[in-house]
Design a protein that fits this description.
Layout lengths: L1 E3 L4 H13 L4 E5 L10 E3 L4 H18 L2 E5 L4 H14 L6
Parallel strand pairs: 1-4, 2-3, 2-4
Length: 96
Amino acid sequence: MVLNVDGDKEKLASFYDKIVLQGLNPVLLCDDVLGFDDRNVISLGKTNEEVAQKAFSALRFCEKNFDYIICSFLPSGEFGQSIQNRLMRSASNKIL
């Protein structure tokens, strides 16, 4: 798993495509699923509260069904920062 903290869709799509070229089946976990064409994408929600509710069940699902997880989350406020810190630990501090 890798965590993206800037929300750059081109960077996410490019990294996704590199993972596919390695023969893996990746998934994108992000707030805005538009613009990723035929890629595997799961929405985490638009607010910190939605992300907090969905993130860890989505991670468990993705760990069982995909080879590589690319997560993008742009936090707002202290609550958002705490969610991002937990996602960073889940990604073993691998930042894209």
